[in-house]
Each structure stands twice: as structure tokens, then as C-alpha cells.
Design goal:
The protein has 16 helices and no strands. By secondary structure, it is mainly alpha-helical. Helix 9 packs across helix 10 and helix 10 runs antiparallel to helix 14. The chain is globular, with a radius of gyration of 19 Å.
Amino acid sequence: MGGDGRGSAESCPLGESVAEPVTDQPVRQRPVPARSAAAARPPAAGPSATLPAHACTERGQRDVAAKAAQENFPVALRLLPRRYRRHLMAVYVYARTVDDIGDQAAPAGRLRMLGELETDLERLYATNNGSGASSPRSPAVRGLADVVTECGIPAEPFVDLIRANQQDQAVTRYQTFDGLLGYCRLSANPVGRIVLYVFGCFTQERAERSDLICTGLQLAEHWQDVAEDLRAGRIYLPLDDLTSHGCSEPDLAASRASPAVKGLIAFEVERARSLIDAGAPLVGTLRGAARAAVAGYVAGGRAALAAIAAADYDVLAATPRPGRAGAAAGLIAAFARGR
């Protein structure tokens, strides 16, 4: 529900670590009218063809969709009605595209590319409102047209996913856990809220439960990917927690986790599990397809955390990944219990 799209999901190595100042202040902006938003962001230097190939071609979009099978959670369960699967995959493709721009594009051009994608979102919403002069250029944004129109999804959660990736370009460390939670509010929670809109069951109370699940899912992925994120120059483990557990950044670059690092990861895993468990009663408020989908997200997060525990909390030797059988059993259990 949250891991669909995170600011550094599936990061690829980018060379040397980024030496940015430590800060836990999220770069959060609310959507603004199209003209003032365009004036506020870095100027675009060309058409949307400057976006990575996967954001500009239909074949590239299929490649992005193929990544869905690698996620901890079922992006679009096969048992769901076709319209829901189509909408969920469109949302996933968009979120994946935003993440890949933030992680894999040439660093010097990422903010400009993200700005171009936001301009495309403005085009989409202007077109839906009957005031657009041009349609979106990116297939990832064009693919949202039906889901936005049919499900009445506001622009804010889609913009927040862009904000998370903009933040990733400036913030590579979080001093406190609260600071990391602020990042998750941009990078993970919007996806869960979009999912609630897709199923026509959005309420503020459900959204708050969804936020807990999504943050837990995001944290689970961070804890799985400690080594990969470090190669990309980022550390999501709060620096205060490293200090309190007697760990240092060089410890995270080792080939195997030390006892201190394992203790730190065990602590963070329990934090993530508590968040997912606190949000899980959302399942019991839903029926039918929505209940199955959200149960799948809950089960995927729990399975990811169980995989880390099964690896004795050593996330440096290899990336712990959950088995499909365990996740499927967890889905059935969460669906039946309603949590």
C-alpha cells in the first residue's frame, strides 16, 4: 500500500555517497494553482522526451509494470475485478516512474525531470476540468486519466510522490525517527490514500489507518535495502538510533551485519511491525475487493519483516525477501480476521 512507490525504491548504485547536511525537516509543499507552481519550480529545458525512456514510451511503461512482481506486496491481485486491477496498475506505473526518475536519471537533471512530470499532472487535471489547452506528454501521467476521472482522486497524493523524490535529491540522512516519518508521509502514505479512492471507500478515519500501514510497509522496505540504499548514498536508519545502538555508518558498509547492527535492525523491525498492526484493523472496515487488496498489503509487509527476522536481522549479507506462500497465507489470515 505504501511501497508501491517510495522516494528511493529499487535504488541503483550512483557512485560516491552524497555528502549532504543531516536534516529531518521534510520538504513539503501543497499543490498550488498551475501557473504559480510552474513559476516556482526549476524551468524545464525541453519537451518531456527529456524524461527517462521508460517514462516516454509505451514499451517502457510495460517494463515498469513488470517490476510490480518484485514488490513485497501484491500490486494488483489477480482475483480483483479487471477495472480495479487496471486502475491499480496505472497508479503503480506512475509511482514507479516518479521513483525511477528520482533514483536512476542523471543526477543533474532529476529536479527538472520531476518538475516536467508535475507540469504534466497539471495538464491532466486541467484537461479533466475542461480548461486544459494540451494533454499530458508522459504515458505515465496519461495512464492516470481514467482512474483520476472515474475515482475522483485529487491531485495532492500524486504531487506528494514527486515531493518525496525532490526531497531525496537534497536529504540523504534523517537524524530522528520523526524526521523519517515525515518523509514517509510524502513517499508512502499517498499511495494508500489513492488506493482507498480507487475502491470508492475513502474516509478520513480509513486514511489514518492506511497511513500507518503504508509507513510500516515503507520502513520494511528501507530495512531490507540498507546495503543498497547506502550504495546510492542514502541512509534511512535514523542517526539517533545508530548512536543509541552503538553503530556507525561504516558498520553499514560491512559484508555482514555485526551484533550491534542486528540489534538495531531488530529494533526497527519491531517499530515497523507495530505500525502495520496498528493500521491493520482497516481491513475489517472493508468488504469484497477492497478488503482483499488491503489484506494483501498488510500480509506483504508482515512477510517482509518476517523474512528479515528469519535472516537473523542480517540485511547486509543479502536482501531478505519473503516467500510467496507465506505472503499468501498471511493474506488469507488478514482477510479472515479483518486485521
